[in-house]
Amino acid sequence: MRAYLPDYDIQSPETLDEALTLLSREPGKWRPIAGGTDLMVLLNAGRLSDLNLLDISRLTELRGISENGPSVTFGALTTYSELRQHPAVREHLPNVVESARVTGAQAIQNRGTLGGNIVNASPAADTPPSLLAYGAEIELVSVRGKRRVPYESFHKGYKKMDLAPDELLHSIHVPIPKGSGFHFYRKVGTRQAQAISKTCLAAHARIENGVVEELRIGLGSVAPVPARARSAEAVILGKAVDFLPIEDAVKAIQSDISPIDDIRSTARYRRVVTANVLRQALEELARTGRAS
Fold first, then answer.
1. Average pLDDT, the chain
2. How far apart (Å, rounded) are the C-alpha atoms in residues 198 and 217?
3. 166 plus 256 within the same structural domain
4. What is the spatial distance between Cα 273 and Cα 252, in angstroms, rounded to a whole number?
5. Is 73 helix (H, G, I), strand (E, B) or coil?
6. Number of Cα atoms under 13 Å in the Cβ half of residue 212
7. Measured between alpha carbons, how far is residue 269 from residues 152, 160, 198 in Å?
């Protein structure tokens, strides 16, 4: 059953200050929307329970991509297409480019936003594992001011975030990796395109003198929230690329994940495939390290 549109109240502020004032005056009442690609699915199914919608798509303060010294900054309204096309993102953050490439079809990429992918808080979202692998920070804004939080601590539980009712996601800051580094992104879904992931893994590593000095692994679809594979990382950190304990890391990642059975897959499948994808990533890491 489709939703009845007259039931909904939609406000479309033209400035960020106007939007934040409304959120501050009536905290918890308004649900921000931007591209609306996830929201429209609920609306068409008659399952959109939020009747008061705040359209933030006009807010130019939340747009743009800039390279600021040690990091690349994305406005919350940056679209997947803009992620794919921007020279700085393509040069420094290939995992972000790849995660945007596998998100939906072109129409979704033209409209869907990075900020929306984050605050929709789906554990199966495609961009969060890349943001975790690169050590991103997010900037939140309200009438009280701005604050930054590490992205890895933003998600507190399924659909629960470190986001106050009067706050908006303003921007995402991603450190530019030092040197050439190692970048890996793999999404496993039912189809090659327009599929929600069954499991997703992104990794970034820094290798110096044949030793893995830095490693971050981001995971999707295998826990209630996008998560770091800290146990697997710890096995590999500080090890020489010629002698990586790959199978030990493959075993360790099982303690980093808590997959479930759902309509797309089974918990067992997700455990097996996540281990296989990690093995593939670490084998590529070893080859890259030996070649550098």
1. 93
2. 17
3. no
4. 14
5. strand
6. 28
7. 25, 26, 9
